[in-house]
User: Fold this.
Amino acid sequence: METVRQLLTEGLRTLGPKPGICSADSLVPLFSTYLQELKRWNRAYNLTGLESDRDIITKHFLDSLLYLTFIPEGSGSLADVGSGAGFPGVPLAAVRPELTVVLIEPSRKKTAFLKHLKRVLTLDNVEIVSARVEEMRDRSFDMAVTRALFTLGDFIKKAGHVVKKGGFLLASKGPRLSEELKDLPASARYEIRDIPLPLTSLERHLVRISLNAPL
Assistant:
C-alpha cells in the first residue's frame, strides 16, 4: 500500500514544472501535517466528505495546485471565496509564500479550523476573513478563486466586485462546464485549460474569467 509520503511525492512530481512549485521534498512534510489536521478536525467539524488519504491528496491538495496554471509568478493578492477547509487557498499559499492569500469563509467552525491551520503550518501570508464575499465592499484583490461552490455566472455576480481592474476570476469545473458558459454575460472574456488530475483518470477544466480587460 502506498504511504502518504509516496502519494504526495508522486503527485507533486506529476504536476510538472508549474510556476512557483518548489521541490516536492520540501512540500511533503507540510502537506502531511495538513492531512493529519484535516482528518483530526473532520471528526467533529465535518470539513470534507473524502475519507481516504489518496482521495484527500488527489482531490483536495493536488486539485488545488492545478490553479497555478493561471496564477502568474511574483507577488499578488488572491481571495479564496468559500474556502471551506482551505481549498484551494491554503495549498496555493504553501507553495507561493510571496502571494497574499485571503481565505473568505462564513462558517465559524471552518474559520476556526483555518486559523488553527495557519498557526500549525506557519503560513504568514494567509489571512482568514469570517464573512460572505457579498459583504466585502472594502477589499479588492488581483484574483479571486473558488472550487465548486458557484456556477460561473453566480461567481461573477457574487465575487466580481472584489477583483481589481485588470484582475480575474478563476474556477475549476467538471463536465457541466459547457452549460455554465452559456450563462456568462457578454462582457466576460474567458480562457479554458483542460488539465488531467494527477494520480487519477479525472480531468479538470480551469476557467479564467476577465471582466475588465482582454485576456
In short: Residues 22 and 209 are 27 Å apart (CA to CA). The mean pLDDT is 91. The first strand starts at residue 76 and ends at 81.
